[in-house]
Amino acid sequence: MLLEGVPGLPQMRELALEDRALIEGRLSRERPDTSELTFTNLFIWRHAYGLRLSQVEGALCIFAWHADPEDSFLLPPLLAGDAAAAVVEKALRHMADSGHDAKLCRISTTQLEKMQLPAERFSIESARDNSDYVYSVRDLVALEGDKYHRKRNHIAQFRAAHEFEYRSLTPDVVPACEELQDMWCDEKHCDLSSTLRAESRAVKEALRNLDQLAAVGGCTLVEGKVQAFTFGEPLNDDTVVIHIEKANGAFHGLYQVINRQFLEHEWQAFAYVNREQDLGIPGLRKAKESYYPHHMVEKHIVRLKT
Fold it and tell me: Are 201 and 209 contacting, i.e. CB atoms less than 8 angstroms apart?
């Protein structure tokens, strides 16, 4: 079935806000388990990754058509069905013919099992740095037991030192969140890092378009001023994904507070929370492991065999 408004390969077009209904309709049928596959995530990172849409055999293909061809990749095609192998092969051959690194990335074990890509035509390797950390929502709200002793201590110290309140992220607090993001960027020297600059742009895209996205946000006010904010959205029927979490580092324990508050106030109806990958950054990996994931969503890289 052809997709109206989406060109067929080799033509592509940029992903836009108007694609929300199309992409979310396909995602609702796929029930993905990877953090990348939500419309919010795709939309806010579209500039950083050069996201492009095309269709092959009725499947929706989302390409990260990067300025550096070595950084380009294909995301798992949506609703490829029995034609998955043919869709992936055609998309990857187009990438190779266009001078881009031909690889399918961010595909989970579950998605691979659905696609049944034949081993004689495709090679598959693990991508640990992009595997997602998934936690029990109940565990991260309750923080019970010895293993969460340090987390509870951080929160207790923050509570003893500050007056604070949780609020849902509404349009009236967006300017304060943007101000906090700018301050965070100044401290982290975002001007010297293309990755941090891209993240800052993605954060502001989300903040400025929250009313047109499925994402829900929350913030922590300390003595009446926004000092932390976060946002996420349902990934599938039992899992929520957290896209962004920012806090003023001057407040010890604030990250632990906003992490817990957001789940407690907004997401207790969900069993699990996906807190995305660690990108192979040692400090980030240590922080994510310190919350004791319930399980990992393992991801892989797929290439055509020559």
Answer: no
Collapsed DSSP state (helix, strand, coil) of residue 118: coil
Intrachain domains 13-131 and 133-276 with the same fold: yes
Question: What pTM was computed for the model?
Answer: 0.95
Per-residue pLDDT of the chain (306 residues; tens, 9 = 90+): 568 889 999 999 999 999 999 999 999 999 999 999 999 999 999 999 999 999 999 999 999 999 899 999 999 999 889 999 999 999 999 999 999 999 999 999 999 999 999 999 999 999 999 999 999 999 999 999 999 999 999 999 999 999 999 999 999 999 999 999 999 999 999 999 999 999 999 999 999 999 999 999 999 999 999 999 999 999 999 999 999 999 999 999 999 999 999 999 999 999 999 999 999 999 999 999 999 999 999 999 999 997
**CATH ID of 13-131, from 3.20.20.30, 3.40.190.290, 3.40.630.30, 3.40.30.10:** 3.40.630.30
Domains of the chain, residue spans: 13-131, 133-276
In whole angstroms, what separates CA 278 from the centre of its chain? 11
Strand partners, 60: 55, 78
Tokens 């929706």 appear where? 60
